[in-house]
Amino acid sequence: MKHDALRNLIAEARWFGGKGRDWSLTGVRRVGELPDAPDGLRVAIELAELTFANPSTGSGQAAETELYQLPLAYYSEPQDRIGHAWVGEWDDEDFGRSFVYDALHDRESMALWLAAFATAGLDSARPTDVRGQLAFHRVPGHDLDLEAHSTLFSGEQSNSSVAFGEDSLMKVFRKVTPGVNPDIAIHQVLTEAGSSHVAALYGWLDLVDDETNTTIQLAMLQQFLRTASDGWDLALASVRNLFAEADLHADEVGGDFAGEAARLGVALAEVHADLAAHFPVEQRDGAATGDLASAMEGRLDAALDVVPDLARYEAGLRATFARLRDLDGVEVQQVHGDLHLGQTLRTVKGWKIVDFEGEPAKPLAVRLQPDSVWRDVAGMLRSFDYAPRVVGMTGVGFDLGAEAEQRDYRASEWAARNRAAFLDAYVSQRGADLGDAARALLDAYLADKVVYEAVYEARNRPGWLSIPLAALEEST
Ligand SMILES: Nc1ncnc2c1ncn2[C@@H]1O[C@H](COP(=O)(O)OP(=O)(O)O)[C@@H](O)[C@H]1O
Ligand SMILES: O=P(O)(O)O[C@H]1O[C@H](CO)[C@@H](O[C@H]2O[C@H](CO)[C@@H](O)[C@H](O)[C@H]2O)[C@H](O)[C@H]1O
Predict the structure, then answer these.
(1) Structural domains of the chain, ranges and CATH numbers in brackets
(2) What ipTM does the predicted assembly reach?
């Protein structure tokens, strides 16, 4: 009963990244219980082990397992108010007959996380509260609002984020791996460095797993950015503005985005500088750029099997990657790793960058590797190409048929203007020219990202595959 209910919960969850693969639920382990639950409620954190019949590409394993975190509310009576979060009903060996709900949707349950974090902050000399295998850590400097009600973010993606009023936000990591979670580690460093471009870290929850003698980072508590607007939504609004004006250029319409794009460039350069000051920076030699070229070529080889249309652009892409072999070396450092406009938030206090977890599909060891800053810059530049193409495709706010040519011209104009504003501001904030070596690196990361996007779109949004392919067509 429990097994089937949890399997259904996982299969239907938005955050489950294994959809479409052949998997089974091979274990469920209760790793902790939230302290101080009221009568009639027990709240448990359980880890579900999933075994995949076919390993993901390149893992070289016969079968692989992944761990997913499931916070569950066990009530002794049914709770109609959270019927939408129903998981199932069963006899639990610790809690007895239970009516079980997804705890993330339940205010009573979420208040227990907040209270546990608050308790951990009571003694600033020992900002960690250990409850069984759970260790609640607090970063001093902010008093949590314990009256705040929780709201689960509807736009949840790889993880589940819960806002506590307008005070704090807790991200519950869904797919978990033993070891350091880069999102927590980077937020901690940037918070201590006083960075104005991230939400301040307030705390985090670790599972100190006795069975495997490892630590698994389960959740992160951070500042709620009250006045935040999503960078991707703002960019789309700006494009629509331009498309609605038949006779005006990008710099003449009200919703021009170039000033924001430039401020984003400055913000990214400042974040990179802070990361370079607090994580190792390495100068790697020419062999490393050769390895980088080989890695990109390898990804192209794999992508050609998934998206045969890429073959038309193969020669140009290979030439771009091969240029890396002429470089003397490459500097690497901690970067964001998965940056695009959807990872940026505009607040009244400027741009913030979120989600430093790297690409969730990549193994943790790969996500922790230092990389070139040009990977992040390329990610943002690709987003400036996407925005007008997405508006053009969906046709919201203008007459598609009659204005197709005009629209394509304007899409290119918007993308070029904002790419230039972002890149110029980034480069000048770093205080260096974009020399030939940096240009070669940037071009290679851009090409690598387009190849990645072609595979991502083919697998996730086939209707959008034309976007990366059109970018390749334009650059040939
Ligand atoms: N500190 C914050 N305050 C307000 N909203 C936030 C904050 N951090 C992230 N968000 C919003 O929550 C969404 C999900 O956050 P993200 O870190 O990207 O989660 P995921 O790991 O699930 O992709 C983001 O798109 C952003 O709009
Ligand atoms: O889920 P993540 O945010 O980690 O990133 C994945 O999904 C992104 C889409 O949500 C995808 O980004 C691509 O589409 C964006 C518009 O939806 C665009 O702004 C990006 O430039 C483009 O790469 C991303 O590639 C993927 O890893």
Answers:
(1) 2-223 (no CATH), 229-475 (3.90.1200.10)
(2) 0.96
